[in-house]
Write a structure and sequence with these properties.
Strand content: 5-15%
Strand order of the largest sheet: 1-3-2
Number of strands: 3
Structural class: alpha/beta
Oligomer: single chain
Shape: globular
Length: 94
């Protein structure tokens, strides 16, 4: 995934509130899944590489957050992509 400096250039954007006010937690109509970042696992479900290199990327991401890192955003996008792939193959999420 390529890190970009503009939301307009990105395929995936993660931006949160910078006002410092506490916000209500996000709610979801679908089951909540946990994404774990683990660089030491021997059999990862998904491997993600972050780069500024245009030629080496399939997705462009823009992150401007006080709560989430670029790695967090990449892991979230990868988990969403993997879930979508499973849905395409099985017709439903396993």
């Amino acid at each position: 995934m390529q890190l970009v400096d503009s939301a307009a250039l990105a395929d995936f954007v993660l931006v949160d509130d910078f006002s410092g006010k506490e916000q209500a937690p996000c709610r979801s109509a679908t089951p909540i899944r946990t994404v774990t970042l683990d660089a030491g696992t021997s059999k990862p479900d998904v491997t993600v590489n972050l780069s500024a290199d245009i030629a080496a990327s399939d997705f462009k991401i823009y992150v401007h957050s006080v709560r989430f890192s670029q790695q967090d955003a990449a892991a979230l996008l990868a988990a969403m992509w993997k879930t979508n792939q499973q849905r395409d193959v099985t017709g439903s999420i396993r």
